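Form 7-S
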Amino acid sequence: MRVVIDTNVIVSALVTRSGNPARVIEAALHGEITSVLDQRTIREAREVLARPKFATKHGVDPAWSEYVLDALEDSGTLLDNVPPYVGSLPDESDRPFVELALAGSAILVTGNTRHFPAETGVTVLTPAELVARLASQ
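Output:
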């Protein structure tokens, strides 16, 4: 199963190393799912996790964040020249995730499902929904 993992899922997994977001990351790192990424989404995750609040307030070790992001990049499918999505979105910063999901024939996993309306044509699941789907396979 191919999935695009939204930055909020990666951040949640690193802040709280248990729960459904962490299980999604584990599934990607163990080959149960294939993450679909591009340089835009990798850069966003690195920029967000480099914010001082994640180390100081949430105790996220920057070296661990880099390790996880490198592992996701190494184990996933990296796409280049992704076609643009021309529709509108509630949050324009989510456009790369829709574009990747469409180009990679992937499911989008996010904690912010309301940011991805049905008219995008993308299947959107929460981390809990993806974990349930994995458990039923």
